Amino acid sequence: MREPLGSTPVTPSPSAPSAHSSRTAAAYDAVAVRYAELARDALDALPLDRAILAAFAEHTGSAGPVAELGCGPGHMTAHLRDLGLDAFGVDLSPAMIRIARESYPDLRFEVGSIEALDLPDGTLDGGVSWYSAIHAAPGEVPAYLAEFRRVLAPGAPLLLAFFESEGGPVAEFDHKAAPAYRWPIDTLAALAADAGFTETGRMLREPLADERFRRGHLLLRAALP
After folding, report:
1. What are the residue ranges of helices labelled H in the chain?
2. How far apart are CA 140 and CA 57, in angstroms?
3. Which of 42, 82, 181, 211 would give a disulfide with 207, using CB separation of 3.0 to 4.6 Å?
């Protein structure tokens, strides 16, 4: 594992999730089995999504740990493993983590909040947030990005996947699990820059026949000291 230059890793004390996060976790607990069934093979029909995940894997350039930050039932963590990464998953929903552990017993999955990760500073060689921060209110997103930056080693990549607002402002919508938000890709990229990331690349994917919204992807790198 790499450490930030000139600093000592600190393991934060785990904090209780916010009331909003607790409600989101309960919402996903309630739909966990059905969600896992729908998500298990979703990547098979998404070549562009697989391409940017492959690009992320190449950008890690290390054998160190990579976390899926908000892993749900674990299918994406398993895909990262299949790309050759030392991947593990963290999710706020205990029901999702139970399914992930049952489905992929060879991988590590932990219950935890991506608002306050129980990880030392700078110990991840990569992070993937695959639609995991979409339920955070706009004012909370900078703190999420700052937390992702804290746990990533300098130079480590971060991949954000989200629903894009197609030229409009940040907009709330009726996600099936809990209220969620669509973001302009430039606005989210600017917040990531403020949190200490540099942009490596981006991808916008138009919705498929069974999808409502354009999908946004930002490939970022934690700034060097």
Report:
1. 19-39, 47-60, 75-82, 94-103, 141-151, 185-194
2. 28
3. 211
Q: What is the side-by-side order of every strand in the sheet holding 126-130?
A: 108-111, 86-91, 65-69, 126-130, 157-163, 215-222, 197-205
- 124 phi and psi angles, rounded to 5 deg: -100, 140
Q: What is the pLDDT of residues 77-115, one digit of tens each?
A: 999 999 999 999 999 999 999 999 999 999 999 999 999
d(CA 189, CA 225): 20
Rg (CA), the chain: 16
Q: Would you list the domain boundaries of the chain?
A: 19-222
Q: Which of 39, 106, 107 is nearest to 67 (CA)?
A: 107
Question: If DSSP codes are grouped into helix, strand and coil, which group holds residue 152?
Answer: strand
157-163 and 126-130 as β-strands: parallel, antiparallel, unpaired? parallel
DSSP letters for 86-144: EEEEEES-HHHHHHHHHH-TTSEEEE--TTS-SS-TT-BSEEEEES-STTS-GGGHHHH
pTM, two decimal places: 0.87
> How many Cβ atoms sit within 10 Å of the Cβ of residue 67?
30
The superfamily CATH assigns to domain 19-222 is: Vaccinia Virus protein VP39 (3.40.50.150)
Is residue 73 within 8 A of residue 36, CB to CB? The reply is yes
Is 27 within 8 Å of 180 (Cβ atoms)? no
